[in-house]
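Worked example

This section walks through a single chain of length 467. The input is the sequence exactly as stored; nothing has been trimmed or padded.
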Amino acid sequence: MAEKMANDLLPFWKEQYQKGRIALDKKNYDYAIMLFTQLLDKEPGCVECRQALRITQFRKSEEGGSKGFFKKAFSMSGGLTHLSKAKMLMKSNPGEAMSALEKVLNDDPNNVSAHHLMAETALSVDYVKTALISLELLFNKLGQRDMATARKLADTYAKVGQPGKAEEIYAQLVRENPGDLELMQALKDVSASRTMKEGGYETAVETNDFRAALKDREESDRLEKENRLVQTAASSAGIIADLEAKVQAEPNNMRWWRALADQYSHAKDYDKALNAYETLEKLFPGTDPQLAMRIISIKLKKVDEQLKQLDANNPEHAEQIATLKKERAEIELSEMERLSEANPTDMVVLFDLGSLYFKNGKISKAIQAFQKTQTYPGKKVPSLCYLGQCFARRKMYDLAVRAYTNALAEKNSMDDEKKELIYLLGLTYEMMGKKEDAINQFKLIYEVDIGYKDVAEHVDAYYDENE
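Given that input, the structure is written out below as tokens.
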């Protein structure tokens, strides 16, 4: 079953949750724990109830004082029994395992083993928000900052749609383990996810319900307003001024520097954005794999902005436009070469560099790049497609055919990528003088998409010749 909120419960259980909240507010902790525990036995995926129970357990522990020796020893003995039971039931009956773990946490909310098992059990049934409650407590409150816990927390943040938090954890791990390529790749993945999700502006809003319940509401509202993606010029200027003040107050805070740089970019103040990104790169080298790509993007946007000011239909601007376009191409190529040299094992960067080599007619360098990137699963088919085109330009048609054929062997459905490969293979056969082989390829596309490029012209011309 999927996780749910209190409003998704049946009326009886929704009412019981409300009773538990009232008991919590009145500091009637034992009664609240009983109500929440009963509800979770029936609805183990109710995140709000799990959060409320956890708050109740900690408040009772913090306000109830220490236990006597015999009571504490008895509690520990019972806790071990419930932990053992939970371990045995994790796979066969996750819900009952979680119930056993709550019995441990009712007596000892700081029990590290119970929280680890709770997170593991919750993740096994895709209760990611439930797992996040325990993982955050382990990492932030209970001092469990080992790599395994940190990575599990980061990955869970990513699953619940908080890639910014995941990125911060992985950035710290990379700083502590600079030679770990697996960590670097994980950081690149979450950085890319954050960039896509946030549209270029780092959000500072805490979205996790458990943490939000403990945060000051006024501060939360202010941060939410601060991080809207659609902003007026006035609000954007206000956000920039606020971030500039934060950077001045905390010059070594990566989060504020990144947010300021992104906001400069959003406001199209590219000089300041570039300066902020470069400062970020100097202050925190190697912590943000996407930073170099952002710097390249800003440099290109500066040239694009200059091109927008020129009229392409005005002959007087022709020379200036040509100069700027050449400058843009040189910047893009040189920056990507620098990035690839700094990240020799990054096949995605190398693929992008190979694409630029191809675009700029540097065929030998393009071949060399794509021969390496074809071994990377995510870039195998597009790399082979580019290799085929490189060989065709060199008139090495047999090698081009082999590249296209190998790429097509990886494709099942007739999507646009497969159509392009078939089309290029057909053109290559034409250049080889193999008209029958060429037309057979074009007909494969014609049968499913008559409007694809000039396939219809090829097929119609063939049949006209053979009437």
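What to look for: Residues 65-78, 198-234 have pLDDT under 50 and may be disordered.
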